[in-house]
Amino acid sequence: MLDAALMALASTGGNALVTAMATDGWESAKARIAKIFGRGKKTATQAAAARLEKSRTALRSAPDPGQAQAEQQLIWRTRLADLLEQHPGTESDLRAAITEIQAHFLQINQQANARDQAQQAVLGQGTMNVDFGGQHGQAS
User: Fold this and answer.
1) In the chain, which residue ranges form alpha helices assigned H by DSSP?
2) What is the dihedral of CA 53, 54, 56, 61, to 10 degrees?
3) CB-neighbour burial class of residue 58 (10 A; exposed 0-12, middle 13-18, buried 19+)
4) What pLDDT is stored for residue 122 in this prediction?
5) Terminal Cα distance for the chain, rounded
6) Is residue 36 assigned to a domain?
7) Number of domains in the chain
8) Is residue 33 part of a domain?
9) Rounded to an integer, what is the distance from CA 128 to the centroid of its chain?
10) Closest Cα partner for 6 from 70, 68, 90, 62?
11) Which candidate, 76, 80, 30, places its Cα nearest to that of 53?
């Protein structure tokens, strides 16, 4: 049985992994976690990558995304806990991988307030075409 700190690591890892499944950093996250599961064995690494991809497919095609996300988090929390229990030496690698994965999907919240006649446009990423009553501009 794992102690509370390792169970928390498995839980955080499961949540981070499932969140990463919907981000641009997925391929990197998948490769990093599969490598940890594989523990230097090519076949085991490939099997772990396949399981991860299968979870992502299940998540993306689910009729109820919220339920699917909760299910996948439970699955990966359990798998990570099993990994930590069976191979205690993977803890530091897993901690580092989770930190890296979380860094890819940190959310930045913006708040903008306008008063009186002020107008504003806020863009987090991408391109936005702006038309403020005849004044045209483009923000990137």
Assistant:
1) 4-20, 26-38, 42-61, 65-86, 91-104
2) 140
3) middle
4) 64
5) 51
6) yes
7) 1
8) yes
9) 26
10) 90
11) 30
Tokens read off for 109? 């919240």
Are residues 48 and 37 in contact, defined by beta-carbon separation less than 8 angstroms? yes
CA dist 39 to 3, 4, 35, 78, 83, Å? 22, 24, 6, 18, 10
CB atoms within 10 A of CB 47: 14
- The pTM of the full predicted model, rounded to 2 decimals, is 0.73
Across the 140 residues of the chain, what is the mean pLDDT of every consecutive 10-residue run? 88 94 90 96 97 95 93 96 95 95 70 69 59 55
Residue 130 covered by a domain: no
Instruction: Return the pLDDT at 18.
Output: 94
Which tokens hold the place of 54? 């299968």
Return d(Cα 15, Cα 19) in angstroms, integer: 6
Indicate whether 121 belongs to any domain: no
Unique residue bearing structure tokens 């008063």: 115
pLDDT at 23: 86
